Amino acid sequence: xxxxxxxxxxxxxxxxxxxxxxxxxxxxxxxxxxxxxxxxxxxxxxxxxxxxxxxxxxxxxxxxxxxxxxxxxxxxxxxxxxxxxxxxxxxxxxxxxxxxxxxxxxxxxxxxxxxxxxxxxxxxxxxxxxxxxxxxxxxxxxxxxxxxxxxxxxxxxxxxxxxxxxxxxxxxxxxxxxxxxxxxxxxxxxxxxxxxxxxxxxxxxxxxxxxxxxxxxxxxxxxxxxxxxxxxxxxxxxxxxxxxxxxxxxxxxxxxxxxxxxxxxxxxxxxxxxxxxxxxxxxxxxxxxxxxxxxxxxxxxxxxxxxxxxxxxxxxxxxxxxxxxxxxxxxxxxxxxxxxxxxxxxxxxxxxxxxxxxxxxxxxxxxxxxxxxxxxxxxxxxxxxxxxxxxxxxxxxxxxxxxxxxxxxxxxxxxxxxxxxxxxxxxxxxxxxxxxxxxxxxxxxxxxxxxxxxxxxxxxxxxxxxxxxxxxxxxxxxxxxxxxxxxxxxxxxxxxxxxxxxxxxxxxxxxxxxxxxxxxxxxxxxxxxxxxxxxxxxxxxxxx
Amino acid sequence: xxxxxxxxxxxxxxxxxxxxxxxxxxxxxxxxxxxxxxxxxxxxxxxxxxxxxxxxxxxxxxxxxxxxxxxxxxxxxxxxxxxxxxxxxxxxxxxxxxxxxxxxxxxxxxxxxxxxxxxxxxxxxxxxxxxxxxxxxxxxxxxxxxxxxxxxxxxxxxxxxxxxxxxxxxxxxxxxxxxxxxxxxxxxxxxxxxxxxxxxxxxxxxxxxxxxxxxxxxxxxxxxxxxxxxxxxxxxxxxxxxxxxxxxxxxxxxxxxxxxxxxxxxxxxxxxxxxxxxxxxxxxxxxxxxxxxxxxxxxxxxxxxxxxxxxxxxxxxxxxxxxxxxxxxxxxxxxxxxxxxxxxxxxxxxxxxxxxxxxxxxxxxxxxxxxxxxxxxxxxxxxxxxxxxxxxxxxxxxxxxxxxxxxxxxxxxxxxxxxxxxxxxxxxxxxxxxxxxxxxxx
Lengths: 544, 442
Hints:
The complex is a heterodimer of chains A (544) and B (442). Chain A is 37% helix and 21% strand.
């Protein structure tokens, strides 16, 4: 996006493109009210009397329509320029999306078996495969043929069926909901009897003295993973988070509301168009809402966060966003996914002979999702002397250069600006190793002896290297904000694994393997599906 | 300190600066020679690069890391050696909390052209530190900024002199000197709280020294010191403004008295302060007095922007309307001035809402990648290259956005100007899977 566009000149243009995107309200596809361009522009001017947010689209509300203004789309294949568009969607009425009829959870969702869930998810998967052309046409029509949207849509239509792979879902459920050596799926199929010895309570024992006819009963304990009413508030730069939220909610038979982030209107639209092909009477469809509203809009959030509206609120976001939700939703259990990042530890085993090998592996961990995922390593701690650290930086820079050649990144100029400015602010004291030249840097390594504020990292193939004398010096930097720690060297890994785990790091991996994943892997230190269900216990007389 | 006689480069710099001042005087009176001033500035800036490279460790490090060695031209400086003004607040705030002035001295030494003696290690308070620096010839200027961390700018005597002198060459010059060319007698009402903690307070003090009489609106509420601002950021100043609506009673009465006495003595009034305080003053006067008559040649100068009072922001036209209704001072006599604590001159806004750039300053527009072409119009991030910043890196990006234009303005001035309003750049947020990344040291 050019600076002129981002400053709003396009929004004022008479040619500004207005795109209506769908919302799913309890299984029904709905659109926001159409609003004339002058009214949209007036709304933006009202919002932007304060300094204009240059970097991000602006969300405003007009009547019952939620507007995302300044959304950059490339509308013509003949131009490489993006156009700042208006995205319109229905602003949800809380009354319509909150599940107030608890009996419907029992009658419709709780009665579903795991096979029913799998069948539903498989039918969505088949839509992605069998109706690919139709979905693509719907997206093309919806987004006015935007070129970048269509190429991303093609990618999504290839990727999403894989995320709905039956075996993967079975394994995830079996692991995350596993209990008492039983498979997780069993707890979604009804009450599961446990082989546990039930001990009568103290009062029951006393009751035998008070009431001569009272006898303690031998009980059987059963457990079920019961459905909950779930509100998922997504954020962040990954467009897949709303999909993952929907999948987790559906897998756990939840009555589900997913708030999309500003980064994911396309994915949300693709998912809604796919669900639209499923039997509208299916309980999992009728209890699903996929919506967007401006974060902090109290006309929506006050009702959603009110006591009894939801059993679980899943929040993706910063400390501030999470605190804001927690303060207003004290009666719901809140599950939090904070922004996290990953780091690497290059043990002394790498020096002097294995520097190239270590740098290669480290570059793999750093380039996960082009440094935009929580698994991407942003900071490398090198155990060794200054000479070794410099040598490592030089080698790593060359490896990043190799990546640049085979996988060039189309660096946004604003991000390039952030990177260039870091050299003159937070990382001004560092020693820089760059690929591509200072005016068109494609990747860079900075060796610095000062702690670096991770919130300043532009996530664009920049690796900050910190030299440490001993492995233990990494300990102050290990905390729950670190998602993965990739380690080079067997001895170093043995030394640091327990320390890192107790400091709150979720994954400790051999260097170069931080992205490796399996179905049901803990996320942010949690077995998420287990958090989304209500673990209910039934205590009853021995049943045959 | 090295004297010009010992340093030919310094002697040439001072000569160039003298010529730039002459060019600024000519420009302010409408007889400018843009080409000559451009050439003078360019030579000055390239000489300054050499001076910085030799004397400022931080600048030298960046020059080495960026491969910028001598000889060097203006475009190279624009694209490689412009600093964010954040470098002046890049110290660890804990050092101040812990009275670690050894660390503060070392930090300041790294971005100052004058070596600062380690004898400063023994000081125990910010006031002592500031005082010790001033004995070494370094005067600190402060700015509270938006982040709550103060900027600290070290000025040597040459730079300090430029700061005190240059702003008077940047606008309203005709007014200060009147028709007969003699210094005008005027009264000055300053709406910013007294003190020397921030640039806007310093500017208020500057007006006070050249006025016949001056009066601070908040005189009863005490002085706000640099130390107070260091401790609490901009809060004390803004809190006073927020409280003023409720507690201005006595102060307002005194101010009205001051205005009326000036009128009786036939002296014009200059009202100076940030726009949010001017707006509040107008509202308070209107509520209690309706309107107050002032001398017909009175003027209003605002500066410093709306800060955290963005919600109360009104347009410049609306503000002028308020001033006219309350004080009878016409729109032509209300001007806004733009500057930052790091600059040694100001840009005064004319009635065409152009912030005129005097020949004392090079302004460049940078794109999102912080790349730009010197002396080219356009919209983007503003970059300033200050030929009078002798003791600290004066090639600066303050984080504001505006459009740079060139030509003859209907106000009579010719040359470069920024088209108002000048907007603050919002810092881009870095997002991970889970949302905006939080500040965390790694």
